[in-house]
Amino acid sequence: MQANDTILITGAAGFIGSYLVGYLNHAGYDNLILADDFSVEKKAPNLAGKRYLEKVHRDDLFAWLQANPGRVQYVFHLGARTDTTEMDYEVHRRLNLEYSQKLWAVCAANAIPLVYASSAATYGAGEHGYKDDHDVIYKLQPLNPYGVSKNEFDKWALQQPQQPPFWAGLKFFNVFGPNEYHKGRMASVIFHAYNTIQSTGKVKLFRSHHPAYKDGEQIRDFIYVQDVVQICVWLMQHRPANGLYNTGTGKARTFNDLVKAIFDTLQLPANIEYIDTPIDIRDKYQYFTEADMTKLRAAGYYAPFHTLEQGVREYVTTYLTTGRYL
After folding, report:
1. Residues making up the binding site for NADP(+)
2. Which residues does substrate bind (predicted)?
């Protein structure tokens, strides 16, 4: 991947997509084609000051690609409907499954490498573990329509005889960091906890409804967004074996750890209140996720990940307290 190559990024106005745009700009990549719906005004600051060639509405992307053959050399497909509380599968089928299938077909037909966003939501309750082996994919039982749509595309991709020259589907775990400010309910716990501390001096966490876990001891693999985009770019540059790759740290931490890291960064005593998990997500709630990172490490990715404390400290001090974007 050279600085003069043209790179298409879908979901470019969203959280991870806009961070990737900024990251690539800082690395000297300006020939970017940005695709998104661009209709949500809250997303506008995500692209402020960033350098790119053109913005294309997601609904017009395939017409644009047809009208611009050979223009794009790489595709990062990060666009999706990511609302895990959206229960209408047709929304996810259209935006996550069918849209991705169409983009895959373009990449395969034109020999364009493709890195796309899958999700740890595909692992469901974790009854089959969190290992990104391809033979496990067909056994997974996601807990919501979003996870189902992501897993359906993963399964479909593995079955395709015609493929891009390189492709990687990244199973994102709990990503946090700057540029997520527009996500509302779906923003990270860190984002919500910081704002709650600023307004009330305390944080509310979900009470455990599982006998094996104490309140606040539910466990997640939290990964800082900078680590996520570094993995995306590394895969595109080094192109190991095609397939699915976990994108976490491999070290799960509790929500209590996370909140205490925020209080520590703000130099405040921890003040946590536990509340019932909402009924609409209680029976689909994951109590433990931890990425098995063996495959990515074996592929040659050796960069260290931010610890939870390091990521929280940078997010809070550099971005949340200043309102900055990357």
Report:
1. 15-16, 36-37, 43, 58, 78-82, 150, 175, 183
2. 174, 185, 192, 206-209, 220, 285
Beta-bridge partners for 57: 36
- Is residue 200 one of the residues assigned to a domain? no
Domain that includes residue 31, residue range: 7-176+222-249+290-305
Q: Is residue 283 part of a domain?
A: no
Number of domains in the chain: 1
Active site residue 146: yes
Catalytic residue list contains 99 = no
Q: Read off the CATH number of the domain in which 135 is found.
A: 3.40.50.720
**Ranges of H-type helices in 145-218:** 145-158, 189-200
pLDDT-derived band at 49 (thresholds 50, 70, 90) equals very high
Q: Which of 50, 55, 131, 183 is catalytic?
A: 183
Q: Report DSSP letters for 230-252, one per residue.
A: HHHHHHHHH--SSEEEEES-S--
Q: Is residue 161 part of a domain?
A: yes
Binding-site members for substrate are 174, 185, 192, 206-209, 220, 285
The enclosing H or E element of 298 equals helix 294-298
Q: What is the pTM assigned to this prediction? A: 0.94
Residue among 99, 116, 123, 146 flagged as catalytic:
146
